[in-house]
Amino acid sequence: MPRSNLAFYLHGILALPPFFNFFALSFNPDRLPRSQTGHILRNYAFLLLSTSVVTFVHLANQTLGIEQRVKDGRMALALSIYHVAPIWRAIARITGGEAVWTKEMGGPGVHLGTHLVVMAVLLKKGLMMD
């Protein structure tokens, strides 16, 4: 393992246990202390920011050739995974009786459509079908 990749390995490994913890907690949110709600939402906000920054940094460092296409595809597949949770949430909101269209950011119908389209585009790129 090259030392230059140590930060990536550490981030990847250290992010997995909290993922499993939060994922399990999402099925029983009553276990979560109410005082932590704001912190978790801020954590989520910064997660979204970090994926945007990673995407723009990646775009700024484009090179030509097949090697770059493979890297682009891997990045696209990795980013596509994120969209599963918002799609899941939008479906839950719609099937739970929430209005499909609302004024606040369009509502779950807009969220569902947006995340489905973005995930499809990322998967297409990741599977090198573009």
Summary?
This protein is mostly helical. The chain contains 5 helices and no strands.
Please provide the ordered H/E string of secondary-structure elements: HHHHH
Share of residues in strands: under 5%
| Tally of individual helices | 5
Low-confidence stretches: none
Largest sheet: none
Give the radius of gyration. Answer: 17 Å
* Inertia-based shape: globular
What structural class do the secondary elements suggest? mainly alpha
* Fraction of residues in H or I helices: over 70%
Distance between the termini: 32 Å
Mean pLDDT: 83
Strand element count? 0
- Multimeric status of the protein: single chain
How would you characterize the overall build of this protein?
The chain has helices at residues 6-25, 37-60, 66-82, 84-95, 108-126. The protein starts with 5 loop residues before the first helix and ends with a helix. It is globular. It is mostly helical and 130 residues long. The chain has a domain at 64-130. The chain is 71% helix and 0% strand. The model has no long low-confidence stretch (mean pLDDT 83).
Pick out its properties.
130 residues; 5 helices; mainly alpha; transmembrane helix; single chain; globular; membrane; transmembrane
